[in-house]
Amino acid sequence: MKRAATGTRTAALDRLVARPEVGALLGALLVFAFFSVTTERFLSTAGVATWLDDASTLGIMAVAVALLMVGGEFDLSAGVLTASTALVTAVLATELGWNTWAALPVSLVFALAVGVLNGWLVVRTGLPSFIVTLGTFLALQGLNLGVTRLVTGTVQVSGMRSADGYASAGYLFASTVDVGGTAFPVSILWWLLATAVASVVLLRTGFGNRVFAVGGSAAAARAVGVPVLRTKVALFTTTAFAAWLVGTTNVLRFAGVQANQGIGLEFQYIVAAVIGGCLLTGGFGSAVGAALGALIFGMARQGIVYANWDSDWFQLFLGAMLLAAVLVNNALRRRAERVRP
Amino acid sequence: MTSTRPALALAGPVLAGLALLAACSGPTASRDDDPATQAPTAGELRVAVISHGTAGDAFWNVVKNGATAAGEQLGVAVDYHSDGDPARQATLVDNAVSQRVGGIVVSLANPDALKTSVQNAVRAGIPVITINSGSGRSAEFGALAHVGQEEDVAGEQAGRRLREAGRGKLLCVIHEAGNIGLDQRCDGARTGFGGTATTLQVDINNPTDVEARIKGALQTDTSVDAVLALNPQVAVSAVNAVKGASSRAAVATFDLNGDVTDAIKAGDVLFAVDQQQYEQGYLPIVMLKLHHDNANTVGGGRPVLTGPGFVDRSNVDRVAEYAERGTR
């Protein structure tokens, strides 16, 4: 959106509404204002810590998924992969007695391998990523349960706290930062970092341009010499890396992992990215928007608790939120297309 | 595009806001302050009940009913929240702490994941009572008491009853992949049963799948003559599967609902292990109320057991009407 400023107010407004994250920003402000006014403790430091915590791990994934969706693909295996990576780390550390620092690279390699496999299959077969990653999702789900029961005889791997190197690794991934007497989980910092990096990569680098190109039209991108395979594999690998980061955060923070964790979360990542302005058709979207989408999720999920509402209604709210966000994004995008020179 | 478009663009978030406003507000406890009939209270008490059940789970609905009823009767404001994901359940505990509730009731299906949050609650001076699972870790986390059923004990008794009914080969159906208590039930059942016992993994969120898999297992191994379900919804599917596979297997189950009591009456289900989970919702509210008003504790450091009770043809009629109204 680098148009010369014409100086008129409409041009400025046009440029603003042409940004994909503006709908999410409005939504986030609205949800924030609503719960701040209607509940007592939403705005207390402990309250803020709670909903930022809730949004952080979702946000890390949503940002990576947003990049992938701008590149025109889905990853349904992302949710389960957070559990798979955690299980690899936990099994190596607790069952085989590895040092945590030795187990983490192994689970990272495992995650990257899944990402490369996803990307390679999607590009080489030409099948929709929806189908390919659905297969990976189901395979990982079975692997999680099967391997866990095989190795531990039960369905949880616990006891991370007694593994070597747990404390130092935990310091990096699962510690808390004290702000005004309230503990803020370090995953919030990771989330901010992930958003910043993803946003810079998407908007300020050649790779970011290639992502928009392959998402907009893979054929056209290929015709002008964009390496489609490499770009898409890099995107799937990024999602897998984010899943490893979230899985690591979870396994260190909660000192264990359940075999059925992460199932169903993949849609939350997509919803957060879509609220943040990503199009299902690719070629349009924003990392900051996805982070805001995750923030809306976190604020709503915890805000409903602060408001003492029946949590049964959460999904209804989420559905309404998603539809509203999509309508807004759609309206704004049409406007943006109109003002493009 | 006309100039009304931006207005339309703003309509979305506004609609979302309205959707928020339209949701119901929480329960407000009715209070009747008659000093003659009530112990002196130390002011308003708000308790958060945080379980690992999925939304819409029949078992947890009874726990919720128990907590809600106790809250209404004792003038305690009760909020019920649940999330099957241990990380998010921990976040809900953090949320309750930041709201400075007067008491927290939490189920420990995954004790390690909840350790930090529960200990933080205790450190913040909030009395915590653990329910349903995790009795072994309850005291270590600093909880006042634990209310629940010992899964291995209950499983063992269920296995023994099936053995006494003259059964020789058991199929134990596990319906949640991440729940350690279910494994303990099957392990206990295997111990008590003494014969051959195999486990079968199914997905509780998909009733069709549950029925089909049990049916498949019964058709594959026709010598299976006992099916132990760990959940009433699974029990109903198991009954259908047994009929569909023309198997002679007896079905027994953990936990009750209206369908299970009907099946016991009809002779389709041999017995149900009832952990009387209504008490797991009700008793903690009573205990927290006593602790709040009178500094009492209950249980003497041991778990307060709500089960196993057994429901079979001898007592099913009485229990059935209670199951019907969602309290058994």
Fold and architecture overview:
The complex is a heterodimer of chains A (341) and B (328). With 341 residues, chain A is mainly alpha-helical. In chain A, 72% of the residues lie in helices and 4% in strands. Chain A contains 14 helices and 4 strands. A two-stranded antiparallel ribbon of chain A has the order 1-4. In chain A, strands 2-3 form a two-stranded antiparallel sheet. In chain A, helix 3 runs antiparallel to helix 11 and helix 5 (100-125) packs antiparallel against helix 6 (129-152). Residues 1-6 of chain A have low confidence and may be disordered. Chain B is of the alpha/beta class and 328 residues long. Chain B has 2 domains: 46-149 and 277-297, Rossmann fold (3-Layer(aba) Sandwich), CATH 3.40.50; 151-274, 3-Layer(aba) Sandwich (Rossmann fold). Chain B is 47% helix and 18% strand. In chain B, the strands form 2 sheets. Chain B has a 6-stranded parallel beta sheet with strand order 2-1-3-4-5-11, with helices on both faces. Chain B has a 6-stranded mixed beta sheet with strand order 7-6-8-9-10-12, with helices on both faces. Chain B starts with a helix and ends with a helix. Chains A and B meet through helix 2, helix 3, helix 13 and helix 14 of A and helix 1, strand 2, helix 3, helix 4 and helix 7 of B.
- Please name the two chains that share the biggest interface, counting residues whose Cβ lies under 8 Å from a Cβ on the partner chain: A-B, 66 and 58 residues
Radius of gyration of chain A: 20 Å
The largest beta-sheet of chain B arranges its strands as 2-1-3-4-5-11
The name of the CATH topology of chain A is ABC transporter involved in vitamin B12 uptake, BtuC
Please tally the β strands of chain B and state the result.
Answer: 12
Judging from the principal axes of the Cα atoms, what is the shape of chain A? globular
Q: Oligomeric form of this entry?
A: heterodimer
Element-level helix/strand string of chain A? HHHHHHEHEEHHHHEHHH
The level-1 CATH class of chain A: Mainly Alpha
For the largest beta-sheet of chain A, the strand count, sense and barrel status come to:
2 strands, antiparallel
What is the annotated CATH architecture of the largest domain in chain B? 3-Layer(aba) Sandwich
The tally of domains of chain B stands at 2
Name the structural class of chain A.
mainly alpha
**Structural category of chain B:** alpha/beta
Number of domains of chain A: 1
**Radius of gyration of CA atoms of chain B, rounded to a whole number:** 22 Å
Q: Report the sheet with the most strands of chain B, covering strand number, pairing sense and barrel closure.
A: 6 strands, parallel
Helix content of chain A: over 70%
Distance between the termini of chain B: 60 Å
Question: What average pLDDT do the residues of chain B reach?
Answer: 86
